[in-house]
Each structure stands twice: as structure tokens, then as C-alpha cells.
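User: Show me an example of a complex going from sequences to C-alpha cells.

Assistant: Sure. Here are the input components:
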Amino acid sequence: MQNINEKILNYIEKNSRIDLKELATILGESENEVINALQDMEEKHIICGYHTLINWDKAGIDKVTAMIEVRVTPQRGMGFDKVAKHIYNYPEVTSVYLISGGFDFMVIIEGRTLKEVAEFVSSKLAPLESVLSTKTNFILKLYKEHGTIMSEDRLDERMKMSL
Amino acid sequence: MRNPVNQTITNIAPSGIRKFFDIVQEMDDAISLGVGEPDFDTPWRIRDEAIFSLENGRTFYTSNSGLKELKVAISEYLTRKYDLIYDPNQEMMITVGGSEAIDIALRAMLDPGDEVLIPQPSYVSYGPCTILAGGNPVYIELKEDDEFRLTPEEVEEKITDKTKVLILPYPNNPTGAVMEGSDLKKIVDIVIKHDLFVLTDEIYAELTYQKNHVSIAAFPGMKERTVYINGFSKAFAMTGWRLGYACAPAVLLSQMLKIHQFAIMCAPTTSQYAAVEAVKSCDKEVADMVVQYDERRRYLLNRLRDMGIRCFEPFGAFYIFPSIKEFGMTSEEFATNLLKKQKVAVVPGTAFGQCGEGFVRISYAYSMDNLKKAMDRIELFVKELKEETN
């Protein structure tokens, strides 16, 4: 049996806008317990934010996203964390992952134009002392993110009534 | 010219609900809560296996009883899930949906005049299949007070020296009722005492929300007097694949297989290859669907009760079966008015037998958004009705 925290997290990961009373009903818990659990998880930074998944393409707003493979030299005594911090402090950087395999960090950068992103890489990221190399991959099309497929919803093709 | 049609089939009345269905079908902007099939797509890995089998040219007949690999996989699945032990070679066959299994099981078991006990409300095919097999259906009216569980008294009351088969449709369509182990035990005693056979239709076995499903076939002394029917439609969201299976003692299964062999040949090959993947590696996919059904179930129950509608808590399938008796209408009038006024379609309880009068079936095989919209509309409808009567 899942505990209440796990049940809440599983649900709100896909739908954070749900009314709390409704969430309690759906999960079969009392409203108070749900509120307390949510508060607790927010304070402990288990829940780190409530964001919106947007199909920018469809909104007609231009955005450029790049995934940058970064090779670095770890810092003595600090490992990769210090370098990571240096990188993720830039607001242009939306995500930073430490990666196993052929490179060390996957850094995701968002900008308005190709030029803007390229410039950030060449002027800020690449020159960092511990950065050995970067490889910039621009995203051409987003198909699926956060478990959600970006294309149109499918119609319900079932017969309207069946026994 | 002579009458081209057979008397027995002519005498079976078409479902009275057809007219209502036709109205729903034509109303484009109606929200339907009327379907009896999952809203989920068949899990991708299952569809992918089907495509792969086609790419490999696996497009021939399988053996009559079904693909061996699938039967072995089902046998392991039934042991893992329900403590059932069936020999995939002698005691199991793959059918065209659970529906075919119901039909051939009754045809293989009944002699003219044999009586079949059929609890209602329940799925619509048991009675007609019994009649077509030469038997006589004897209906048992289940009660809301018992949460639509079958009680030993109800069974015993209807037993005659002609009674041969008891049909056990749990988890139940349309009520959502379940039979727990303790409920089944009492039925087992009577079945053995009166030397009856059981046809247990467990097509909704994966969809229970309180306790895991228990099969009557797992009770000592029951395997030899049970036809166990299950399938892929509900559990794995595979309705259109038309795939089910039946397990029974070899002496009975071999006769069922003869009918299947002459009438059907074999179940669809592509579906069978896909189904191997379903029983072998889709526990997670099924569990995810069950969680979502359960969320919707709680939501609906709560909304209906908030509206002041009487409703027992169903723990199986994907239906809720509220009582609409307080509104002084028949089920069909209620459903028709709801459709006309608020454009929400539900199924009148009478579609599942006369004792479904006073109830409607609401399916929660719909997205939460859909259910919310529908519940808001039903709330308006009920409010108006209550104002009218006051």
C-alpha cells in the first residue's frame, strides 16, 4: 500500500492544479491530512515547485532550446558539485544533470534565438576554467515531455453506448 | 415461401434498450457515460508485439485451442494472480473474447430442459446463450441491500432437480459488485451439496479496488465443477482484439473445443501474439490503470452522494449503479430525461434484467475532465427534479 505522500506525489506530478478537496476525495484521504502532507513536502523541498507544461510552438512564441554536453575537470575536494553550481546559477540554464558516460554534464539552455544561446555558450559556459569541451545540440522539435505527448488529443472513437 | 428463420432465435426479444441507444448515438453533443469498455489505449508494448508479429509474417491459423506459448503464459499468470492451476494443454483454450467462451461453455454443458441460474442485474448474454443451447434460464434477482452480492439463500431457493449450472458474474457489470472469499465459500458449499456446475465470468478480475479478486475455481473441490472464463478486453484495454480464454476440466474442455473448432477455427493470431506480452509483462500498465479507475470511482461516488443520490460503494469493474427510485421515474424515463435535458447518457438498469429497474449504470471508463463535466450536468438535472417534487 502506498503511503499518503506517495499517492499525492503520483497524482500531482501530472495535475498540480487540482482542488484540494477533490484531491482528498480521489485519494480516499481526509482533506486535512492532504493539506498537512502537502505543506510538509513543500517545506522539505520534496515538492520544489508547481510549473506549467507549455507547447510554445503552438502558442506561436519562438523559443530555442539547446542540450549541451559539457566535459569538465572536477574540482579538488568538491567533485562536480562546485562546477555544477557555477553553471546552474545562470538564469539561462534551465536544467543541469550529472551524466555517466562520454561527458559529465547535460546542460539545458533556453533562449529566444539561436544566436542568443550560442553566445551564452561561447561567452559564459565554454570559457569556464574547469570546462574542457562543449557540444551544443539544438532541439528541432519537442514530441513528448513530462510524460505528455505534445500533439493533438485523440478523439474518443468508442461507440457511445455498449453493454 | 417458408419462414427462413429459426423459432428459438426469433423468440428471443431484441434488447429493449436499442431505441434509447439509437437516440444517444445520434446526439453529437451528448456526454456519454454509457460505454462498457476501457478508455485507455491498449498498452504500447502489446500493440508493438502485434506489429512485430505481422512484420514477421505470423498470419496463419494457430492450433484450435490457441497458441501454445500464450496458453503457457496464461497458465503462469493465473497461478501468480489467482492461485489457479490449469494445464495449458488439456484444460485451457483461447476464444474470441469472453463472449465466445460463455456461448460454447453453455452449449457444451446443457441438455434440453437443463436449468441455468443467472444472477441479475448482469451482462446480457447469459440468458440468450442458455436458450440457444437448449437450456432454461432461471433468474436470481440480486438486492441492493446485499450490495448485489449473491447469497446462498437466493441460490438455494431457485434450485430444482433440473438445475445444472450457476453463472457467477463477478466483479459485476453493471453493478460493480464483488464477491469476497467469505461470500464465495457459502456458494461453494451449496454448489457441491447440490452437485451443480459453475460458469464463472471473471473478465473484470483485474479491476478491484479494495481487496484482490478471489476466484471460486480456487476453492477445494471446485476446479472439477467450474468453467473459468477470463479475457484481455477489460484488464488490458483490448476490447477490439477479441480475445478471451476458458479453463475447464479436460472432459468438458475437449467438448467445448469441438464447437470452437467447427464454428471458429481459432482466435485471431495477431491478437494471440500480442496477448503473450500482456500476461507476461504488463503488470505495471494494469496497475496504473487500476489506480486511475479507483480515483475516478471515488470521485463519482462522492459526487453522487453529495447530490443526495443513494449509491452503494462498488469495489469492482468500472461501473457505479446508483438508485434513482426516489425520483418516481422508471430507469428508462430517467435516462431519457437526463439525455434530453442535460445531454448526459447513462444506461438504464433494466438493460441488465428487470431487477435493474430503479437504477442506472454509470461507467467511469472516461477521463476525469469528462466525468467532471458529466457530474456537473447530472447535479443540475437532479436539483431541478428535486425542486419539481418539492
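The lines above are the inputs; the final block is the predicted structure for all two components together. Residues 56-145 of chain A form a domain with the Alpha-Beta Plaits fold (CATH 3.30.70.920).
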